[in-house]
Design a protein that fits this description.
Layout: E1 3-13, E2 16-25, E3 30-36, H1 44-55, E4 59-63, H2 80-92, H3 95-110, E5 115-124, H4 126-137, E6 142-146, E7 164-170, H5 178-188, E8 194-199, H6 216-234
Parallel strand pairs: 3-4, 3-5, 5-6, 6-7, 7-8
Antiparallel strand pairs: 1-2, 2-4
Length: about 240
């Protein structure tokens, strides 16, 4: 399916705005998906993810959430220098402000003629954490989080989840201990709004094609589940 790529400016109040990479499907209007970045910014992987969603019929919007720190960050996972910079940005990133920026993206996207009105979200790593909080703090229609970090510290927000949420957990995640995984599953068990999938034998970022820990089988399974979930909840 042919797609169109463009850039939006998202109003952020106080005469400020920030950019978002946008991929649009051939047919219009369609449901939208906000693609929430990893610690590497809106890089090639995030843009390819948006392009793939557009090819599957969604309006995909990937906002630059590091804009308050440094606009247009596009790092890879291929060098120590880039990892160091990525962790530095993550450590300075204001999570609460990030969620407010995501709400601004959702509100802006709902108002666009290319959108049917429904908006979902999908996030990876830092974005997986933000996807969880997006489900709890915004008016998103559904959210998907891949290997979100530090979720165990946020389980107090589980009761605030207002929409359907799917989480993908890597059982050998070097950034999320087995104990943390147990805490997450225990806290969310019985919450009808939440679906949790675990993937044995895979590490953090198993769905990042070209990454050190990419696992084609686990990625295919998780991505298939995600696509079904988005289609079901954004129809």
């Amino acid at each position: 399916m042919s797609i169109t790529r463009t850039e939006w400016q998202i109003p952020a109040g106080n005469n400020q705005s920030f950019s978002a990479y946008v991929a649009l499907p051939a047919q219009k209007p369609s449901a939208a998906v906000v693609v929430i970045q990893e610690i590497f910014g809106v890089n090639g992987f995030i843009r390819e993810t948006a392009d793939d969603l557009a090819a599957k019929g969604f309006l995909a919007v990937a906002p630059d959430l590091f804009w308050r720190l440094e606009p247009n960050v596009q790092l890879t996972d291929k060098s120590k220098e880039e990892w160091d910079k990525a962790f530095g940005l993550m450590n300075r990133f204001d999570i609460d402000q990030g969620i407010r920026d995501i709400q601004a993206v959702i509100t802006h996207t709902r108002a666009q003629k290319e959108n049917t009105g429904k908006v979902g979200a999908i996030g990876y790593c830092l974005g997986g954490k933000l996807a969880y909080l997006t489900a709890a703090r915004t008016d998103i229609d559904c959210s998907v989080g891949y290997y979100g970090v530090a979720l165990e510290t946020l389980m107090g927000e589980a009761s605030s989840i207002k929409s359907r949420l799917m989480l993908h957990i890597a059982e050998e995640d070097k950034f999320v201990s087995k104990d943390a995984q147990r805490q997450i599953k225990h806290a969310l068990d019985g919450n009808a709004a939440v679906t949790v999938h675990s993937y044995a034998g895979v590490d953090h970022a198993f769905a990042r094609m070209g990454g050190e820990h990419f696992d084609a089988n686990a990625a295919q399974l998780a991505n298939g589940r995600t696509l079904d979930f988005l289609r079901q909840n954004l129809a």
